[in-house]
Amino acid sequence: MPRRNPAGERPQRRKDVRHGQGGDAFRCVGCGLDVPVHAPGTAHRNHCPHCLTSLHLDRRVPGDRRAGCRGRMTALSVTVRHDGEWLIIHHCQSCGVLSANRIAGDDNALALLRIAMRPLSDRRLPVSAMLTL
Amino acid sequence: MSTTHPSRPVPKTFPCVRCGLTVTASGPDGTPRNHCPSCLHSLHVLDAVEGGPSECRSRMAPISIAVLRTGDWMVIHRCARCGELTSNPICPDDNQLILMRMAVRPLAQPPFPLEAFGGL
Ligand SMILES: [Zn+2]
Ligand SMILES: [Zn+2]
Q1: pLDDT of the residue at B51
Q2: Residues spanned by the domain of A63
Q3: pLDDT digit string, tens, across residues A48-104
Q4: Which pLDDT score, from 0 to 100, does residue A126 have?
Q5: InterPro entries this protein is in (chain B) (predicted)?
Q6: Of A18, A85, B3, B43, which is most buried by a Cβ count within 10 Å?
Q7: For residues A66 and A58, is the Cβ–Cβ distance under 8 A?
Q8: Cβ contact (<8 Å) for B49 and A78?
Q9: A131 lies in a domain?
């Protein structure tokens, strides 16, 4: 994968903004993985790079940490921004709220692809026929 | 239906904020519509975070297709002004070309080479 996560790289400098839950790592509420908050090429980590699950912490603005919900947010779909970057649409399993989050450099490519493929594997719609056009 | 309250009449049609099409308030199967079947745009009238009506009233663009466990397709809309996201079921007469285009768009612009995943 070209989006490899170089392990031996110099660690990223600590940022003033808090994107984790106060520590250097958080435990994923989806798969239990201990996720380091800071990783190369990942400035705003808000979801697990392995299973893409997030936690409902923000209310309206990313990083505001004003939601009291703390529900588990699963990856629902992906969308493409105008600059071509992929965003994950996260869906809170507790309150139903949706949020859009940039993918990170070390996100699991297969997990991302599976979500992107969901509408295309629907046999009721002629999507696969359209793809061959 | 005779459930319409006299002081708050339910509109039978609404004009699309983007393409101007006169849209019937319910689809062919009777389900209420929230987006234009032709361009799939919507209007930000409900507050998804707080619940209840929204003061925003800006245009909401369709940005993604989500598939429910039941297999039903939902359109994810994003408000052009405030960025709020909503999710709504598709209607049988929704523009299939736009739906398909949204469904294939991420794979047309992948962040990694798809060749490595030939087995999918
Ligand atoms: Zn929530
Ligand atoms: Zn809005």
Answers
A1: 84
A2: 25-118
A3: 999 999 999 888 777 777 778 999 999 999 999 999 999 999 999 999 999 999 999
A4: 56
A5: RNHCP
A6: B43
A7: yes
A8: no
A9: no
For the stretch B54-101, pLDDT in tens is 999 999 999 999 999 888 999 999 999 999 999 999 999 999 999 999
Does some domain include residue A130? no
Distance CA A18, CA A73 (A): 19
- The domain total for chain A is 1
Q: Measured between beta carbons, which residues in chain A are less than 8 angstroms from residue B113?
A: 2
- Among the bound ligands, the one closest to the CA of B79: 2
The confidence band for B10, taking pLDDT boundaries of 50, 70 and 90, is: low
Q: Tell me which DSSP letter residue B116 carries.
A: G
CB neighbours of residue A106 within 10 Å: 20
Residue A112 placed within a domain? yes
Interface of B with A (CB under 8 A): 48-49, 63-67, 71, 73, 76, 78, 83-87, 96, 100, 103-107, 109-114, 116-117, 120
Backbone angles phi, psi at B80, to 5 degrees: -65, -25
Would residue A13 count as lying in a domain? no
Alpha-carbon gap, residue B103 to A127, rounded angstroms: 8
Single-letter code of the amino acid located at A123: R
Total-model pTM = 0.82
Shortest Cα distance, chain A CAs vs residue B47, angstroms = 10
